[in-house]
Amino acid sequence: MAITTPMRFRQAIVQALADEMRADSTVMLFGEDVAQAEGPFKTSEGLLTEFGPLRIRDTPISEMGFTGAAVGAAIMGMRPVIEIMFMEFLGVALDQLVTEAAKMRYLSNGKLSVPMVVRASVGSGLGFGCQHSQTLENWVAATPGLKVVCPSDAQSAYSLTRSAIQDPDPVIVLEPRILYAERGDVDTSLVLPIGKARVLRKGNEITVVSLGQMVNVARRAIETSALDVELIDLATVVPWDRETVLTSVKKTGRLIVVEEAPQSGGWGSEIVAAATSELFCQLKGAPFRITTPDVPVPYSGVLEARFVPTADDIARQLIESLKTGTTPKSWWELEGLK
Amino acid sequence: MAITTPMRFRQAIVQALADEMRADSTVMLFGEDVAQAEGPFKTSEGLLTEFGPLRIRDTPISEMGFTGAAVGAAIMGMRPVIEIMFMEFLGVALDQLVTEAAKMRYLSNGKLSVPMVVRASVGSGLGFGCQHSQTLENWVAATPGLKVVCPSDAQSAYSLTRSAIQDPDPVIVLEPRILYAERGDVDTSLVLPIGKARVLRKGNEITVVSLGQMVNVARRAIETSALDVELIDLATVVPWDRETVLTSVKKTGRLIVVEEAPQSGGWGSEIVAAATSELFCQLKGAPFRITTPDVPVPYSGVLEARFVPTADDIARQLIESLKTGTTPKSWWELEGLK
Amino acid sequence: MSAELERRRAVQEDAIAQYERMIEIREFEGQINGLFASGSIRGTTHLCLGQEALAVGLASVLRPTDIVSATYRGHGIALALGLSPESVLGEIMGKTIGCCGGVGGSMHLSNMELGLLPTSAIIGGGMPIAAGAALSFQVRKTDDVAVAVFGDGATNIGAFHETLNLAAIWNLPVVFICDNNVYGEYSRINTTTPLEDLHMRADSYKMPHFALDGMDIAQVQKGVTEAVIRARSNGGPTLIEAKTYRFAGHSRADQALYRPEGELEKWEKRDPIKLTEEALIASGALNPQRIIEIKSEMKTTIEKVVATCQDSPEPNLASMFQNIFTPANVGRS
Amino acid sequence: MSAELERRRAVQEDAIAQYERMIEIREFEGQINGLFASGSIRGTTHLCLGQEALAVGLASVLRPTDIVSATYRGHGIALALGLSPESVLGEIMGKTIGCCGGVGGSMHLSNMELGLLPTSAIIGGGMPIAAGAALSFQVRKTDDVAVAVFGDGATNIGAFHETLNLAAIWNLPVVFICDNNVYGEYSRINTTTPLEDLHMRADSYKMPHFALDGMDIAQVQKGVTEAVIRARSNGGPTLIEAKTYRFAGHSRADQALYRPEGELEKWEKRDPIKLTEEALIASGALNPQRIIEIKSEMKTTIEKVVATCQDSPEPNLASMFQNIFTPANVGRS
Ligand SMILES: Cc1ncc(C[n+]2csc(CCOP(=O)(O)OP(=O)(O)O)c2C)c(N)n1
Ligand SMILES: Cc1ncc(C[n+]2csc(CCOP(=O)(O)OP(=O)(O)O)c2C)c(N)n1
Ligand SMILES: [Mg+2]
Ligand SMILES: [Mg+2]
Phi and psi for A213 in degrees, rounded to 5? Predict the structure, then answer.
């Protein structure tokens, strides 16, 4: 029987970092306030003490500089992990990931690899306002050469972080900030490979694909709906697990993606489009996405609570779509807000 | 009858800039080598001479600096146009568009607007290698607050550039670099509003949606296929013209998106997903995308010529999909390359 | 003239009003932690306790047509520029009464009438925007100036470098004010920056620069005035380093336990409010009795503001769909 | 030892070999325009004519285990570091014989055995990467160094600023070499940068810095050696400004008509090849006759290289699908 330990999501990250650093002396961590202060979100607690200032480092506020430094260190055989406090800050450093790191192996004729990990906190729900609450998967999603994962609970935070560090190529780990304090049971021997989705609940009527903080909301919705839904935590956004998702949709004939990304341009379009192209004849109803509206993330608690799809929204749309076979209206269309 | 003038795509841009600058003294242009040298792609020929150094300016190599300067100048009532020589260079400045400009109106409670235009050359085909050939629509596509257009010929280069400058909000104009030298007829009185697709060819069997440099390739494919295809130049990527596209798909029952973006994460997923969600019951065959493969843009002429979908590829897939109702294989799947 | 413009004019003209505004800021910031504890505020917030002289000194020197770009640590600057305490606290509480209707929050205060651009939560984000505002003044040939206020930590981000260079080569009417409060988040500036006198970085752009005592409102006024006059008269940009100190932690959660012993106490001896009181008493403009009254009145005022904001309605759902794009097409043709 | 490592060793040891390599670069670059005209090369290309002393001087001082990050203007540095002319020209022609199998092109030469990172086409892009390589040396406690070569124009991009600050605060073993060839594209440096001596910007990071005459290979060797020794012995980074001049236009299409009259001619008097010849003749190491022979031999060699590359096969379609991800999982566990 697997031995599990209860811990918070953020502690699972600390644990994964520590376990990797113990196993491999080339693993190092740097970012703003990750060393002395042990991380703005306490995701590096104890690491400076255990691994010392050569491997655990605070950086100046220079995302381009230290992201690029990770690229260079990785090329030379280190396995740097960097922390981007809020995903938005990659807006000043995206070049180093999309246009440098992702292309380095190609441009070396296969002579080098870039085994770096970028950890970035993402998402809404904590009242951080519109410049600190986006998910922004799309910034990195259409980039051959990058891998992108997103844990949804303490277990996947632990296992995906380890897989990301072990991966020989650049991996971006999107950490839903709202989950840092959540508790879960972690089996440290469980491996979650990159590129593999997690089927969290078996079902035959509808396939729901979700990611990050929406996974739990989708699960609650499914439970209240009392429908026979298969819930897939996509876990890896790039390259996403076509096999698991398409096998499920083949079985259920119905696909709903539940995502925090905006209606326009969110990652879920990729899943819906690919599933439709490949399985058109086997679909029993319109596949669709349940998303956030096309608005900047609002600050007010009242508004922000309504910004992400709620379990009620999702349950309503699950039930209605099963009944009608068509795409139900979003809550803001229902309320005439757009 | 409309009076048209023959000109090159890049000249149409010059003309649009000049016409706007004559009409409005708040319009200005800055970027690297746009003044003295009249633009690395000669898209500002004659402008310094006519409008002088106050309004036409060379900048240092500081994309973050001058993009942000455009945001500030726009807020204060100017209509700055900036030139980003290659779209990739926004990788060092994306913050100013996605996280600043797009949110400014929201964060001022509607008290300010940001009437700026970002012109950025995009795409493959000229042997510029993988750091100077991407289209990267996805960097800006999931951002409420930004508009994104992409001309496909001299006429739309002229008309969309003018509409972009006249627009009160930030607009990004993606200019397919390979088209700069192409000739076309321009009617300077023709207005192409932002958000409106262009139906370039009426048809009843299949709807093809395309963008930028792929529009002409798709047109050639349609002509050789001898099928009754409706060709839509999407023209605006955000907010895309749901009405025109969905009306067409309602009529034809079939949708194919032809795009230069990579198979994973490209903008076409949005169109396929939305059309499927809304029109599922009216579709007669699998909607699908014809894209570039998930590889960095290769340099070699032989490889780059094969990187974008060819007219032959497209024609084959049009014909096959009409016959089978399913999604045909991409050329690299056919050739067993992936 | 709007009430907020009146508030602005007050600090422009009168030393007592300036002192009162400093007290207002001190009182205002003092309320925030309690409001967090009671659940009236969520998210995060960044107090400017100890930095009141810079905020008010700056506001007293500028015109409302000048433009200021500041940061998430912006309550004090907003109040100093004239935003009403209701519109600032209301925004922090996410209420309709807030300057941004509640959709912005603590990190994004703004008021275009008073020249406050939406404050940025991205380090360095506001700097090129300020330069752009200055560019517009230059092209239109007004004599307004733009001011960018940013922290010590911000001097290590690329935008700082690009903006200063651009402003210098274009000779823009902009004043860069580095509010060196010794810390960037939990990092003491000397652990991230090899240089002690940050204003020296202006040499890289052949830009005039100097440091000033940011705890002394008179020094702030003198220094900023010098730079503003240069900017107004086509003399180009200036980099000012205001030496200040952050009396509170970086943000809500932070207790600032990383401070070397005695450091806070040393700086508290130069508390800007204390220094101002001493000066006003010395000049005879105020007496100790009046100071006690002002503080007590201000306490009452701010308590009322809190009550008003707490009673103000929550925004309705429609408000999150507004103000993304400019309505209709207000373009020219 | 591979033939390319032999080529590297040659320039490390011998002044004549260094001179020959400079001639090789000159000859090589001279061929490029013709190859464009004949359609053998597409895209764009950036010649380093006039900058041969910097390339060869640098390569002569470094070890193959040191790491160099350079730019799209990288043919000379690649050849100097030891890449064979076939692997450089082959890459520029997009052939399988190229160092990158033809998928990279002129702007992206690389050879990890010789310590050349893929050159970057993004201004400033390679700078933090070099710092990162230096970081790995520091953590692993080797005494290798990393070198970042970049242009004058690159000193205005944010990455320059962030990288120098990071390298300074971490005391990284990295040498920054600004190849100030007076122009960034079509802009003379003084039109985009208020400072003339760009190395002075290192003062912002308390980093040692100096200028050197980039036309004189002995000066290059002396200056780079000083910085490399400092880096190898834990002395941290240095910023060197090599004063050079770009004899050709910015890229293929550019005729450089924007140059002030007489400027090119003035710099041509200090042609690095001429200066090297004078020095070698003065020291008796070479005579004029031998110089003519070397040039003529090199001409023949490069013509053969052109022929070889022209005969080399085009890549097959499969090659564009390779080397995106590392095959299998070569991770540890
Ligand atoms: C680009 C970017 N990187 C990191 C952060 C996170 N962050 C917020 S405040 C802060 C410290 C800034 O320090 P300083 O510039 O000294 O300003 P202060 O907070 O002291 O006023 C950091 C690192 C950010 N907001 N933006
Ligand atoms: C971020 C970025 N902005 C702009 C460019 C376009 N560009 C290519 S070369 C160049 C000039 C660079 O000048 P300099 O740094 O002096 O190098 P040189 O070409 O003279 O070697 C520019 C602006 C780029 N490649 N990357
Ligand atoms: Mg600070
Ligand atoms: Mg140069």
Answer: -65, -20
* ipTM for this model: 0.98
pLDDT-based confidence at D329, cuts 50/70/90?
Answer: low
**CA atoms in the 13 A half-sphere facing the CB of B243:** 3
- Residues B232, B263, single domain; the answer is yes
Q: Is residue D37 included in any domain, yes or no?
A: yes
In this structure, the strands spanning A206-210 and A229-233 are: parallel
Which of left, alpha, beta for A237 (phi over 0: left; psi -120 to 50: alpha)?
Answer: alpha
Q: What is the pTM of this model?
A: 0.98
With a cut of 70, say whether residue B1 has pLDDT above it: no
Q: Are residues A155 and A298 in the same domain?
A: no
Report chain C residues whose CB lies below 8 A from the CB of A298. Answer: 102-103, 315, 319-320
Instruction: List, as ranges, residues 156-175 from A with C-beta within 8 Å of B.
Output: none
- Other Cβ atoms less than 10 A from the Cβ of B64: the count is 32
**Residue B252, SS3?**
helix
Are residue B170 and residue B245 in the same domain, yes or no? no
Selecting from C137, C323, C331 the residue whose C-beta is nearest the C-beta of B168 gives C331
C-alpha to C-alpha distance for D86 and C120, rounded to whole angstroms: 52
**What CATH number does residue B124 fall under?**
3.40.50.970
Q: Rounded to whole angstroms, how far apart are CA atoms A241 and B265?
A: 14
Q: Taking phi first (over 0 means left), then psi (-120 to 50 degrees means alpha), and beta for anything else, what does residue C146 get? A: beta
D18-42 pLDDT tens trace: 999 999 999 999 999 889 989 999 9
Closest chain C residue to the Cα of A37, Cα to Cα: C186
Same domain (yes/no): A181, A320: no
What is the phi/psi pair of residue C131, to 5°?
-60, -40
Give the domain CATH number at C44: 3.40.50.970
Mean pLDDT across chain A: 98
Residue D149 pairs in a beta bridge with D177
Are residues A204 and A134 part of one domain? no
Determine, for residues D162 and C159 on separate chains, whether the beta-carbon distance falls below 8 Å.
no
From the list A76, A95, A167, which residue is nearest D136 (CB)? A76
Neighbours of B22 (CB within 10 A): 11
Q: Is the CB of B88 under 6 A from ligand 2?
A: no
Domain of B87, in residue numbers: 5-186
Which residue has tokens 């907010």? B239
Q: Are strands C183-184 and B5-8 parallel, antiparallel or unpaired?
A: unpaired
- DSSP class of residue C173 equals S
Number of domains in chain B: 2
Here the CATH number for the domain that contains residue A285 is 3.40.50.920
Q: Tell which one of C46, C123, C181 to mutate to probe ligand 1, the residue whose CB is within 8 A of the most ligand atoms.
A: C123
B85-98 per-position pLDDT tens digit: 999 999 999 999 99
Residues with Cβ within 8 Å of residue D153, at least 6 apart in sequence? B60, B61, D123, D183, D184, D185, D187, D189, D192
Closest chain C residue to A91, measured at CA: C122
**Residue spans of beta strands (DSSP E) within B156-251:** 171-176, 183-186, 198-201, 206-210, 229-233, 236-238
Domain that holds residue D49: 3-311
Residues 97-126 of D with CB under 8 A from B: 100, 102-108, 120-125
The identity of residue C68, as a single letter, is V
Q: Is residue A271 part of a domain?
A: yes
Which tens digit of pLDDT belongs to each residue from C139-165?
A: 999 999 999 999 999 999 999 999 999
Question: In the numeric block, which tokens belong to residue A18?
Answer: 């520590």
